[in-house]
UniProtKB/TrEMBL annotation:
InterPro entries: FAM187A/B (IPR039311), Ig-like_dom (IPR007110), Ig-like_dom_sf (IPR036179), Ig-like_fold (IPR013783), Ig_sub (IPR003599), Ig_V-set (IPR013106)
Protein name per UniProt: Family with sequence similarity 187 member A
UniProt keyword Repressor present: no
Keyword Aminoacyl-tRNA synthetase found: no
Signal peptide (residue range): 1-15
Domain Ig-like: 268-343
Length: 416
């Protein structure tokens, strides 16, 4: 009975949500001339594009993607047959956008966006009628400029040219990534350009201002995104941990007795995963539920992995580092890397990873192994090359000897 009532309530709420969405479309009329709203993101982020207007009689929409305006190559994004992947945890960053999107309540959601996803997104129908458009600029995380404010470093100065100027627009500071101990905060900044020569078909929040990779930037400009990169500012912080609710006294005593049986009191009470990795291989650890815009921190046992030392590209010879997507990388795993790695998210420790390092058993090579085939080809090519050199050298020697003999015979006949 209770389950039936609950399902009815869910249906009512879902219908109410659809009705609310319909009211939005009634209030907003579609523009007579299709414009494109500018939106900028950092690579590996997940973004959502709402279809802000559509005719009332249209019950479903199709999203279209065009890299450049007027291009004959258009990608159709529709989940009429069911979207293949909607769980962002199963998505690889190098996969096609066709495997990284979902349509929910007429809005397009793209998971773990890549630089190649930059372009025009249009909301329309199967017939090719367009209602709303976006100009999406996904800026790369490679070669991001990093400023550690605790070291006295500063963010980039604005660039001013003759026909355009460049500056960085920063998002709000993230929450402190740890609590009870010294943590860190990040502030992501994206590249923007200001010019009076921007394409008028692209709509921006501030007049004459758009992101550096936008299609509104004229082609004759000296690529602004090459002159300025996204940047990240990092500073230290310290916040107290939130007190968790304590159960009733009797329940607390029983739970303490049960929890202490077979428990290691020095380890935090968080979900723990166990993983084995072979020596010499590479490992990437992801924090559960974390996204690039979240405040994420990593510890190894009792050692804090702070970004001034472990952020990617701080040192060219780094083997253990944290990338701008908050993933922990361990390259060429060693025995010393074994231990417990803890993940903090939004100021709370959420997961632990117990890493054990094993030696990979040697196996006998067969002729079908790729390594064996490569070695045979390399040895064969080397033998062929050396044989050619040997034959050419002997031919040259024979020609030289024949020439010398002919010359000596001619000299002898002249003397006689």
């Amino acid at each position: 009975m209770f389950a039936t009532i609950l399902l009815c309530l869910v249906d009512v709420l879902h219908a109410f949500a659809i009705e609310e969405k319909g009211d939005v479309f009634k209030r907003m009329a579609c523009p007579a001339f299709l414009m494109f709203d500018n939106a900028a993101y950092l690579a590996d982020m997940t973004f959502e594009l709402p279809c802000n207007c559509k005719p009332e009689e249209v019950s479903s929409v199709i999203w279209y993607f065009q890299k450049n305006m007027g291009s004959h190559k258009t990608t159709v994004l529709t989940d009429f047959a069911g979207t293949m992947v909607v769980d962002s945890g199963h998505i690889h960053p190098g996969s096609s956008v066709l495997k990284r999107f979902s349509i929910r309540m007429f809005s397009l959601i793209v998971f773990r966006a890549q630089v190649t996803d930059s372009g025009h997104y249009l909301c329309g129908t199967k017939k090719g009628d367009y209602f709303y458009g976006y100009d999406v600029d996904v800026q790369p995380t490679k070669h991001v400029t990093v400023a550690f404010l605790d070291r006295g470093q500063h963010v980039q100065d604005d660039y001013t040219g003759q026909i355009f100027s460049l500056f960085t627009t920063f998002w709000d500071w993230t929450r402190c990534d740890r609590c009870g101990v010294r943590g860190e905060q990040r502030r992501i900044g994206l590249c923007y350009v200001r010019s009076a020569q921007l394409h008028p078909r692209y709509r921006t929040a501030v007049p004459n201002v758009t992101s550096c990779g936008s299609n509104a930037v004229p082609a004759h400009f000296q690529h602004p995104d090459h002159l300025r990169k996204p940047e990240v500012a990092i500073r230290s912080c310290l916040i107290p941990c939130l007190k968790k609710e304590v159960p009733e006294e009797g329940v607390q005593v029983i739970s303490n007795v049960i929890s202490k049986l077979g428990e290691k009191p020095w380890l935090p009470r968080i979900p723990m995963q166990f993983h084995q990795q072979s020596i010499g291989s590479d490992l990437i650890i992801m924090c559960p539920g974390a996204r690039p815009e979240h405040a994420v921190a990593w510890d190894k046992d009792s050692v804090r992995l702070y970004r001034p030392r472990y952020l990617i590209s701080v040192n060219k010879s780094m083997r253990v580092f944290i990338d701008h997507g908050n993933h922990l990388h361990i390259q060429r795993v060693r025995v010393s890397d074994r231990g417990t790695y803890f993940c903090w998210r939004e100021g709370e420790m959420v997961a632990g990873f117990r890493l054990s390092v094993i030696r990979q058993r040697r196996r006998r090579r067969t002729l079908s192994d790729p390594e064996t085939i490569y070695a045979i080809k390399a040895i064969g090519m080397s033998y062929t090359f050396i044989s050619i050199i040997f034959i050419v050298a002997h031919l040259c020697r024979c020609c030289w000897s024949s020439g010398q003999a002919l010359l000596s015979s001619q000299t002898t006949s002249v003397i006689h």
